[in-house]
Amino acid sequence: MSCLMVERCGAVTFKRSEQNAIQVCMLADYRLSTGHAGVLLAERRGSYPLIDLRILKSGTQQGEVESGTRRKVKRLLSFQRYCNNSRLLRGLVPHTPGSLHFLDDDYLGQAAHMLSKVGTWNFDIFLFDRLTNGNSLVTLMCHLFNVYGLIHHFQLDMVKLHRFLGMVQEDYHSQNPYHNAVHAADVTQAMYCYLREPKLAEQLSPLDVFLGLMAAAAHDVDHPGVSQPFLIKTRHHLASLYQNTSVLESHHWRSTVGMLRESGLLSHLPADMSQDMEQQLGSLILATDISRQNEFLITFRDHLENQDLDLQLASHRHFMLQIALKCADICNPCRVWELSRQWSERVCEEFYRQGDLERKFELEISPLCNQQADSVPAIQIGFISYIVEPLFEEWLRFTEPSLLSQTMMTHLHKNKARWSLLQYTHASDQQTHSQAEEPGPEGRGREGEEIP
Ligand SMILES: [Zn+2]
């Protein structure tokens, strides 16, 4: 299966013969997996993040592991073919921009109506995704590019733009409960709201806006649904490729660069300009690495304390784009409860799936991934307290006076209080449950008191 271990960007530097071998292998693999011998997905991409099964211990005998387990692990982690299959089954031909033709006019009308309010904070991205038949990211990006006049400004080819956005959307894994194309669309919508903040909007150039939206749309592309520590301990090829540092973020960026080059979206621009855009996209996407949170928070605080942010400077605007993208990426707890709760449950579901996989293969279960020990409310309270609140407090300071920031902080505090209540209820339920399982009168009295 080594032929499937292809980094999109790496393909650019491959020798021709290696490329051909890979394409033949990928095509054969696709045909085997679908039975659609006549459907050619020569552009099929994806990292195929395979686990090295040799290091995954199993309680069962080696022989039993080979067939069933290997297949199951591959099914869990080799997503792209299933993603493409599911889209085919739903009547969507991959990379065909005209897939909206399948939609009823009523749905398109409602989607268009929603787009007229795309700058509002209670925008329901789940509903929008349903109304666009799973094309929320492409539809949203095309709309925002039109709003800002980016197509005209950068003289973009519409066919190439659709092709690029279609590839990005396709390369998100629809099987991931959280890191899927709807999350990307949600982050893009939030980014749009932040780009409109008066403190920022007045200073941003068309290039800043273009990069901000592109980075938001592609920031998690081809996410495998497992964390970096998981990739490292299973000796995933991406971990060694990126030397165990910002593994996922580097992959998201390099995949994006590969898609930009494959689509030719920027091919009409001078080489130094398109290279600079690729580098800036990398700097933005790499900033979403949550392990670098403190580094960015400290710099942001220092700027605010010293009041030395000069948005006339391209470097300072770039820094603020990094901060805006980081905020957009973790803004779920700042949304209205009904939307926020859905994201919280989805991200925990993704954590638990990783935990189940780790348990199954007798690997150490990663923090927050143990469904028996880590409840959704507890995970959310920790996430809000240590990650979200500190960043949004500084964002509030930067954007002041901002109605949006105040609204977000109100939601954040309400949601945290709600999770605290749910945690209390959860803890009470657990206690009642454990008491019910404890020995009867001969061992313990009421409320856990020892009987002398
Ligand atoms: Zn993200």
TrEMBL record:
Zn(2+) 1 binds at residues 183, 219-220, 329. Keywords: cAMP, Hydrolase, Metal-binding. GO terms for biological process: signal transduction. Its EC number is 3.1.4.-. Residues 429-452 are annotated as: Disordered. It is an enzyme of class 3 (hydrolase). Binds 2 divalent metal cations per subunit. Site 1 may preferentially bind zinc ions, while site 2 has a preference for magnesium and/or manganese ions. Residues 103-426 form the PDEase domain. It comes from the Eukaryota. Residues 441-452 have a biased composition (Basic and acidic residues). The active site is at residue 179. The keyword Hydrolase applies. Its cofactor is a divalent metal cation. Pathway: Purine metabolism; 3',5'-cyclic AMP degradation; AMP from 3',5'-cyclic AMP: step 1/1. Belongs to the cyclic nucleotide phosphodiesterase family. PDE7 subfamily. This is Phosphodiesterase. It comes from Channa argus.
